[in-house]
Design goal:
Four copies of one chain form a homotetramer. Chain A has twelve helices and no strands. Chain A is mainly α. Chains in contact: A-B, A-C, A-D, B-C, B-D, C-D. Chains B and C meet through helix 2, helix 8, helix 9, helix 10 and helix 12 of B and helix 9, helix 10, helix 11 and helix 12 of C. Chains A, B, C, D: This is Ion transporter.
Chain lengths: ~270, ~270, ~270, ~270
């Protein structure tokens, strides 16, 4: 790049760091503009608003798109290895937040893919990083990650169960009650098992209602499983952290009342 | 104020304290009248009752309004620093519980703002303070407060997720199935993710139903998070924290009522 | 009573005890008959079945009623202090399970109060008492009882919240969207907050939908509270039970690794 | 059997074991074919797809049926005691996954019982056995099994409660609001108590709505019970059970990897 190294460093400080007033101002502006851009997309989708303020919203969206484009270029320029940013999760999202608007110029009707920029809202978590919010969200993610195998087993079992029960309900109720096909019937089963219960499809035969009752009570029961898993994880996360370290072998995680190292038998201070 | 200091003190004892028979009678009357006032507002909103008993309810409401006004004046007079009460949460609620009725005289049609007095029901918690209910509610609030950062992170993530998923569903289903705009679509997503499932809007296309299933299973899974957070907090609240240390052998974690060290039998101080 | 003491004792053994073959047979028959009686009441309520088998069901119900009456008389006779049984919970339920049928003879149309006999199903818990089911149900009840003050505070707070939010929704939506009165609006709020979501009433205005979203997310969050309370209780119930008793002062609940009594400092064996 | 023992052993290795490349290939193929078979049954139930691709799907299903039949025969042949497999859960499911197709040839219209093969999806758990998924699912099952008596007591209580409340709602609302019979009314009660809330039947009278509110709040409260049970079980599962006792000072509850006593520093055996 033809940019002076000095300028690149300055840009990096503003965009990627938040310690300087300029960096803080940039982060804050970005959050505000992301919010405005999401609000603009939302409002434009409301027919009555589009009729009234369609022109103004259109201009606002173009201003935001240009800003996002400049931001994207700046981000690419400000880092030493631009490809790393470009192919990162946030890099792809940032690109997808601007590109559809330009493509929409060439191929009208695809403009609504701009809605992808709602994903940019996630950047807020990044920007807020230095605050104590991160500790909490990290703990949340850690607890979820640790129980992810169990959650996967649980979810797969639930899906198999829904396929079996959905097929059963299709055989019992049939198209007459709205169970028009097995996929629709599985959709109904998931709606019921998760206790959502839209009511767009409901069993009409006594036997179908009987099986529904069993499904509902089952759903009521198995909601306990993910809750139990995550709760147990949260509690285990919180088990007292003993900071004592053995001076002889550096073993950690001693009992609170340990007098000797469990690993080498050395007396703890 | 021209009121004698003696009278002010007496009034304070009756209104703000509950140790004397007069104070107890005042508190009890207030609870009863608040309940009656809420019931009257409720009943007046029922068309058939308003036709029959509208006149009587109207009189009852005026009596209650006058009582609440007198109570408000008394509360202001009874404390040394009236502004502190006036600008407190309960002071504002107390004022808002009477004012709309008078304003309704000048500007008809605003009378239903009287419904604000439902908030006065919260005063019951205040009045019941000396009972053992407070211990329980304090513990509840303490546990919720301690996990409030995590709950905030969780709720913000859920809302961002709902914006993204709502926009997606708007793009999939569109106005034909009732997803008339992105805000409406987000409303549907929250209705679905929280397992409420009104059924006023439901996906009609197979792909929309497929994405709905994922949203429902997701909602089923993430309901575990706030539950896990609060439960972990409740349990941590309850783990006995005993700071006593044996002076002879340094053993910790004694029972709260321990008189002797469980480890060496030495008398604890 | 003119009954010989011997006969009374025998009757008591059969009805109230389950150690003899006759007692076991009585208990089993009673469970079966209660189930049949509940099934008969259920079936009679189904119009198509009543038309076909109304006569047979009527006879069956009379036979059961006579049996229940004889059982009631026998229970009264078999105990030394009959009033104690008569005014006990089960005594009142047993009477209410027979009486409506006789009253129905005099005042037709009240016959369906016979449905009260569904409550007799609870007797199954009594009859199964000697089995290991009781340990489990006792533990369940104990855990619920211990957190009952907190649950009461929680429920009262939820109800106050529903009154306030219901009134608010009535002011926002009004009768046009089905929020015909404040009580109806509170009904809707509870339907929404508990994530039931019937969909018989749904918000139509954008602002109403916005407030609904907040209510739903709130409901999603506060469902964690009762769960957390009961879970914490269950876990505390289960804390290791140490059976060691001090030989000097009989103190119990020592730490698992206690060497000396926490109460008197006496060496534990 | 006339099969050579050598061939039987080889077959057993392929079908029942997963250590050889052939065994792994067999397992993988089986999973893929089960998925295809379930997908085919699902797709055939969609009217529009059946019209278009009915012929192709029919052929695919016959190929799968023949494969499943061969697999069934191979499984019977490969084990020494075939009856043990035939009467095992998976043996019965495997048979039921093929038989209906043949019976459908003789008696048309029963073809959809082929849907039973959705149950074959459960075999995936078997096939994945050697992976770390099993540890997780075993733990899940163990926790559920240990709390099964309590869950049974809880479910039975909920059902009794639903019978009583359903009968009550039938008496309050009656056929006019859709509560056409007591069984229907019990169906509604379960729909409400489990917070599913279809909305196909909703209370219309003020008193019915009032009782509904109580049922909903009750449902909101008692959902805590299964969650609490399972969570408590999960947490208890995880508390380290270490039976090691120090030979020098009798200290217990050592870390699983402890080599020396935490209390006296004595080497553990």
């Amino acid at each position: 790049m033809a940019l002076s190294e000095n300028f690149r460093k300055k840009l990096h400080t503003i965009i990627y760091e938040a310690d300087t007033p300029a960096g803080k101002f940039f982060d804050l502006s970005l959050i505000v503009i992301i919010f405005i851009s999401v609000a603009a997309v939302m409002l434009e989708s409301v027919a009555s608003i589009k009729i009234k303020y369609g022109y103004e919203l259109g201009i606002a969206e173009w201003i935001i798109t240009v800003f996002f484009t400049l931001e994207y270029i700046a981000r690419t320029v400000a880092v030493k290895r631009p490809w790393r940013y470009i192919f990162s999760f946030y890099g792809v999202v940032d690109l997808l937040a601007t590109l559809p608007k330009y493509i929409g110029l060439l191929f009208p009707g695809t403009g609504f893919f701009i809605a992808i920029r709602a994903i940019r809202l996630l950047r807020i978590f990044r920007i807020l990083k230095p605050t104590h919010f991160v500790g909490a969200s990290d703990q949340l993610l850690a607890a979820l990650k640790k129980s992810r195998v169990k959650i996967a087993v649980f979810l797969f079992s639930v899906i198999v169960l829904c396929v079996i029960l959905g097929t059963l309900m299709y055989m019992i109720e049939g198209p007459a009650s709205g169970f028009t096909s097995i996929p629709t019937s599985i959709y109904w089963t998931i709606v019921t098992l998760t206790t959502v219960g839209f009511g767009d499809i409901t069993p009409a035969t006594p036997f179908g209602q009987f099986v529904s009752m069993l499904i509902m009570i089952l759903g009521y029961g198995i909601i306990a499983v993910p809750t139990g898993l995550v709760t147990a994880q949260f509690i285990n996360e919180k088990t007292p952290v003993n900071t004592q370290v053995c001076h002889n072998c550096n073993a950690q995680n001693h009992r609170d009342d340990a007098k000797f190292c469990y690993n080498c038998g050395y007396k703890l201070n």
